[in-house]
């Protein structure tokens, strides 16, 4: 039998005929599944490659499997369209995706992503709750398209973002139940960073979320900007009064988001040297995007700030240098201890 190759660049929805409900995913071997999730992690745009060389070698397969789960979950919720029929279809697909998670935890995975993820779950002893929470967040996206308060947004982030950070910590061997009273609260700091990353994404993508997904995350109670006002302003960006009103609405949210990054800032220093640089890179990258929102004048209803290649290279270079210094320091400490 010839080796099966699943194109990792193919949109998730284009693979549903074969790997969706009623598909033939049972024919996929563990090696084929692993090749797919690793390819998927490397073929999709992110601010930083999920499998950058900063990720410890022994964790790269696990990072790829978790990323692939998140990618499929996200796309099943976002890529079916923007009308009610599309949202209903997404809910059906996410219910199926949860049933595939059932099969995975029952020891009988059949989808390529879950075949790869099952190995990671077994190897790293990952609990089910973070995966369930992520699916729940994408289901919420189909039912709730507008948010009124900051607290509603933060609650959403507890399921849409925080589980990812918690999974990363667990992949690195940290578990909430293993924390001692004297330990730094790594999970609280991780939650703060992940919530900040999700909120940064909201402020960066106000225009795209509104146009492509008919979703509004700008909380009306906090800003005084109703969904109707925002939709009206979208096409009136050349009016100074409109731009000023939007900027005044968004700027306090950006400030509050930066406070969350500051709360989580000590996290990398509490982690083992192997995982510290990659966690620090994702946090620094998110904060750089937030600063980009501020540098563009908080005008994201009309323009989307992005990290320049130079900024990305600078951040990665700093992470590499950090990893090198940490490695050198650890080697010196070990030698001194041995002496």
3D structure, described in words:
The protein has helices spanning 16-19, 30-43, 60-78, 84-105, 112-124, 129-143, 150-160, 162-171, 186-204, 206-213, 220-223, 227-234, 240-264, 276-295, 309-338. The protein is an all-alpha fold. The chain has 2 domains: 1-126, Farnesyl Diphosphate Synthase, CATH 1.10.600.10; 144-339, Farnesyl Diphosphate Synthase. The longest helix has 30 residues, at 309-338.
Record the SSE blueprint.
Layout: H1 16-19, H2 30-43, H3 60-78, H4 84-105, H5 112-124, H6 129-143, H7 150-160, H8 162-171, H9 186-204, H10 206-213, H11 220-223, H12 227-234, H13 240-264, H14 276-295, H15 309-338
Helix pairs in contact: 2-3, 2-5, 3-4, 3-5, 3-6, 3-8, 4-5, 4-6, 6-7, 6-8, 7-9, 8-9, 9-13, 9-14, 13-14, 14-15
